[in-house]
Amino acid sequence: MEDNLKIPEHVGIIMDGNGRWASKRLLPRSAGHRAGMKRMVALAERAKELGIRYLTVYALSTENLSRPQEELDGLYDLIKKYFTSNVRKLVKGGAALKVIGDLSLLPDDVSAVIRNGLKRSPDSAEFTFIIAIGYGARSEIVHAANDAAALGGGVTEERFSSLLYTAGIPDPDLIIRTGGEVRLSNFLLWQAAYAELYFTDALFPEFTDKKFEKAISEYSSRVRRFGKV
Questions:
Q1: Residue 191: partners with Cβ closer than 8 Å, 6 or more residues away
Q2: Residue 161 has what pLDDT?
Q3: What confidence score (pLDDT) does residue 227 get?
Q4: Could you give the residue numbers annotated as active site?
């Protein structure tokens, strides 16, 4: 890793390509999701080492919930089997964990595992790993708008941001998407207003630490003007 890089405070990752990674190897899609979960945890550990303070990963979108039930059941089984142990591993390494999204969209036993696992996490730490599950940015914005209407009074950007799932978390500086697609797919739409975007053809299980560091290096070379000259 190069010296004197500008390290982003908050990085978001759209983890795309698990299923295609498995298909290329004539494996079931569930094998791709297992490989993706392993890579996700390793990336969180590397992000912490690099000095990134927040890492948000897009694990399961609201749109993903329309996938075939067999695939969803495989994803849910992974959460039930590995979520708690991965929380324990990351917390032991000094991380805090947060989940954003609508857990009511998940089966009760799956949401219960997530909620119970998060009880092991401290409220804050130098590094926070945020997992978006049952998450959709449009739904998040509508939810915040309804809350703002119920509270009454004027709405400023700051007040609206405080009603989002990410309240108290700085907006992402960099959003990375793996898998070759070039779009945000309903991920952190409000928060990503001035994020730098980085796209790679690497399927997520192939998105190694070295490729992650390349994205950070590319981010470091950019000049962020936030609409100014």
A1: 161, 164, 166, 171, 172
A2: 97
A3: 72
A4: 16, 64
